[in-house]
Specification:
- The structure is a single chain.
- This protein has 17 helices and no strands.
- It is mostly helical.
- Helix 13 packs antiparallel against helix 15 and helix 16 runs antiparallel to helix 17.
- It is globular, with a radius of gyration of 19 Å.
- It starts with a helix and ends in an 8-residue tail after the last helix.
Length: about 375
């Protein structure tokens, strides 16, 4: 029961977050933003999470997960209301910044909670179930936003998402007892700093891999609307194409526990990078919605296992009492790539068009897959 309720409130949270990225990108385009400005908007989501991720992880280790999740839910709802009150480009930057900062507390806490339910033996299975919920939110968020933008406009869509992301806060207020005692507050662990954690080779390699996967997912969610608008697609069609990537992730994650047992988490993670990189090369070659949806589905098959497996490996390679901190470092690495890569790619998109954005990200994924395969060697088959 605790796992499914956690997945449920996470789905609500991620519908708001993932939907907001497409919504903000579309609204920015409507306000005549260029790709460089879109890149800055993407980066705005990650500025405060980069600075706060490790602190958020330590906070969950120290005081538990309930209050960080509750504050994150309320903060995200407030952030989504900013463009409703002030429908300007500046408000979009404020919203992206607030959403990123608030979500980092919910995000780290939720991962810590999922990994603690039923003990270490159920961890891969737990994150498999959790990742299915993430796929559902990845489908529902863009589709809902696309439909609402076409039928009700931007303001109503922001209000709807704000109403959705505040619901987990109500659940945490009225029914806090589903949180296991193992992730309640603990004394400060006797531990070293971030450098000590990064000295672990397996953990360090997992963090790099995770950053590449998150960057690939976020760039697709932001730049697909730009490409879709450029070829004349409606918001609803763009939403369905993005949703196909999440639908594929749902399918492949049904098989994730079996794949992890058969081949090892680390090897499957490497394959995910290589497949996603190959598919990224295909995307800008087509402008027919059906074909674009099919390519999006293939991309989802590649990225679908990557995100949950990187969380499992981070959790498994973390020292006792420092899981939240390690998850925070993982997110800090992710956020660093989410700041640097969009700015670089946004500038590239303004100068050379949108195609190099997709192809450059494909190169990053392919090089990353080759790098992790070489770093792990035979250990990749064992999930170490």
């Amino acid at each position: 029961m605790a796992l499914y309720l956690t997945v449920f409130i996470s789905v609500l949270n991620q519908i708001g977050l993932k939907g907001s990225k497409m919504l903000i990108a579309l609204h920015a385009l409507d306000l005549k933003a260029d790709p460089a400005t879109i890149g800055l908007l993407i980066s705005a989501y990650a500025v405060f999470p980069l600075m706060l991720a490790v602190y958020a992880g330590r906070l969950t280790d120290r005081i538990g997960v309930r209050w960080p999740m509750l504050c994150g839910s309320l903060g995200m709802s407030a952030g989504l209301l900013v463009p409703f009150v002030w429908p300007t480009m500046g408000a979009l930057f404020v919203a992206a910044t607030v959403l990123g900062a608030a979500n980092i507390f919910f995000h780290v806490s939720c991962h810590n909670l999922v990994g603690s339910i039923k003990g270490a033996g159920s961890r891969t299975s737990n994150f498999g179930t959790f990742s299915l919920g993430a796929s559902v939110s990845g489908m529902l968020g863009p589709v809902l936003v696309g439909f609402m933008v076409d039928s009700a406009g931007y303001s109503s869509t922001f209000v709807t998402l704000a109403g959705i992301v505040i619901l987990p806060g109500f659940v945490l207020l009225v029914y806090p007892h589903f949180i296991p005692a193992v992730v309640e507050s603990k004394p400060d662990p006797q531990a070293g700093g971030v450098r000590e954690l990064l000295a672990d080779r397996a953990l360090r390699t997992t963090l790099i891999t995770s950053g590449l996967i998150i960057t690939a997912i976020d760039l697709f969610n932001f730049y697909m609307p730009i490409y879709g608008r450029a070829v004349g697609l409606s918001a609803s069609t763009i939403g369905w194409i993005i949703g196909m990537q999440a639908a594929a992730a749902f399918v492949v994650r049904l098989w994730m526990p079996w794949l992890a047992r058969r081949y090892g988490e680390a090897r499957v993670l490497t394959w995910s990078l290589l497949m996603a990189g190959s598919t990224y090369l295909l995307f800008p070659m087509f402008d027919q919605p059906v074909v674009m949806g099919a390519v999006s589905f293939l991309l989802g098959l590649g990225l679908g296992c990557g995100q949950p497996l990187s969380i499992v490996l981070t959790y498994n390679n973390s020292p006792p009492g420092r899981v939240g901190e390690a998850l925070g470092i993982r997110l800090a690495v992710n956020k660093f790539t989410q700041i640097a890569v969009p700015i670089l790619f946004g500038t590239m998109g303004t100068s050379f068009g949108i195609f190099p954005v997709f192809w450059s990200n494909a190169a990053l994924l392919l090089v990353g897959g080759a790098f992790t395969a070489r770093m792990r060697g035979e250990g990749a088959g064992k999930g170490h």
